[in-house]
Amino acid sequence: RQGQQVVGLTDMANVKHIYSRTVAIIGGSSAFETNSPNHIGIQFYDIEDRIEPSTKTVEEIRKRVEDIPGGQITVAAQEEGPPTGAPINIEIVGDNFDILGRIAQKVRGVLEKIPFVQDIRDDYVAGSPTVRVRVDRQKAAMLGLSTDIIGFALKVAFNGIKVSTFREGDKDFDITVQLPESDRRVTDILHELLIPTAEGLVPLSTVTRFEVTGGLGQVNRINHERVVTVKTNVDEKHVPGPVVRAQAEK
Length: 250
Known about the structure:
Blueprint (H helix, E strand, L loop, with lengths): L1 H6 L7 E7 L17 E6 L9 H12 L22 E6 L3 H16 L4 E6 L7 E6 L1 H6 L4 H13 L1 E8 L2 E7 L3 H4 L9 E4 L2 E4 L4 E6 L6 E3 L2 E10 L6 H9 L1
Antiparallel strand pairs: 1-2, 3-12, 4-12, 5-10, 6-7, 8-9, 11-12
């Protein structure tokens, strides 16, 4: 869907080329991976060859991509020279990460009401649930199991392990054994995992218990303090950036 909407930009009179830079993760995926930013660049024709004002084309681009689901989209001109950052950059500092996230949402709400403010975003990343596996060492020892063996079984199940390769033409492909992706996204499967012992296969739940707890997301710090930053662009042809910042800080 995203690709189709981006390709659709080629019907715009001022657009000469579209290129993209993406981040790919190689290996087994996890339900708790942090998203990586991807970049799509649009090259306009030279100014003398443009059919309409560049600002009009940029506004049309914003309208076409604003409804793409599941992403945070920023439309901005390429910077020349050293990076200068967003015109409005509000840093929220504190100890409680959840409270910082709530304050960031309130700041975003204030900015959304200010005219000519564009591409509001923040770097708050909510924590993903964390599953802790507690091993009953006494029960495990009675079955000849160690924490290393149990940990290895979990690693194979969720991260996978390379067991062989096969060759097709002039290319080699890894053969990896791991749980299906749908099973790696639920905790109930932990109760069904079987571990081989001298007595036969034993359910993982026989020697462990599971705790689901909240976890921290990506935490940024300034001078060793937790910080969440709210950024936004401003159409400074209509209103200066310092004026918008003053309004946001009231």
